[in-house]
Amino acid sequence: MIPVITLDGPGGSGKGTVSKLVAEKLGFHILDSGAIYRVLAYAALKRNVDFTDEEALCELARSLNLSFVPMEEGVSAVLDGVDISKEIRNETTGSNASRVAALPRVRAALLDRQRAFQQAPGLVGDGRDLGTVVFPEATLKIFLDASAEERARRRYLQQKSNGNPQPLEQILEEIRIRDDRDRNRPVAPLKPADDAVTVDTTSMTVPEVVSRILELAAGRNIAPL
Ligand code: DC
Questions:
Q1: Are the C-beta atoms of 145 and 11 separated by less than 8 Å?
Q2: What's the domain count of the chain?
């Protein structure tokens, strides 16, 4: 059985940063499942597919010519040969991703694509339902959380370092709307798996969170090669 570590949690809980570092330490592959929903939302907008047209979105989800290419600065999302990593990172695409992700058949259409990432020597995946739906047999399931205020603050600092900050109040409002939609959708809502370990990162540094996860992984016989 190829080991899988899942990191689920709300936006801004640090999943992306932490899963990248944990995967690096362990020499594992990485799955950023949110990027798949973001690419789908981006492609739908480009092709004028309505966000309420579930059938057309499913068709698009199945046919996406998408690959993730490891680069020095991280993994790039490449759609039809074009690197769209930057384009999918804004709040509008995040919010559109959350809308398409609320559609049950769209989620089902993306399952195999996500499961194909389980390759030797192992996988670290981050998202909302990796421990509950995509990899129910995962070796270690983590639920990363942090207060909405702290997550908004982190987003703000991230945007500021990219030279394009939105007002903090606006980020907090968007985080609340997206949380609410992700947590309350009927299919695969954001919630910890019954056997997940919750790590509240509100007052933890990134290295502290990474060591905590590596400690938990070691407890399941997953150790750096
Ligand atoms: O993690 P992220 O912010 O890149 O995710 C964007 C949106 O995609 C998020 O608001 C909800 C959705 N998503 C999901 O429903 N299931 C996942 N496994 C990952 C993301």
A1: no
A2: 1
User: Cα–Cα distances in Å, from 63 out to 110, 128, 146?
Assistant: 10, 23, 35
Classify residue 63: in a domain, yes or no.
yes
Which atom of ligand 1 is least distant from the CA of 11? 3
Write down the pTM of the prediction. 0.93
List the domain range (segments joined by +) for residue 187: 4-218
Q: Which CATH number does the domain housing residue 95 bear? A: 3.40.50.300
> Which residue(s) pair with 111 in the sheet?
none
Q: Report the DSSP beta bridge partners of residue 70.
A: 75
Rounded Cα distance, 160 and 73, in Å: 18
Within a domain: residue 225? no
Q: Is the CB of 125 under 6 A from ligand 1?
A: no
Ligand 1 atom 6 nearest Cα = 34
Cα(114) to ligand 1 centroid in Å equals 13
**Crossing angle between the packed helical segments 33-46 and 54-63, to the nearest 10 degrees:** 120
Residue owning the nearest CA to atom 13 of ligand 1? 34
Q: Closest residue (by CA) to atom 2 of ligand 1?
A: 34
| Per-residue tens of pLDDT for the chain, all 225 residues | 999 999 999 988 999 999 999 999 999 999 999 999 999 999 999 999 999 999 999 999 999 999 999 888 789 999 999 999 999 988 889 889 999 999 999 999 999 999 999 999 999 999 999 999 999 999 999 999 999 999 999 999 988 988 888 999 999 999 999 899 989 989 989 999 999 999 999 999 999 999 999 999 999 999 887
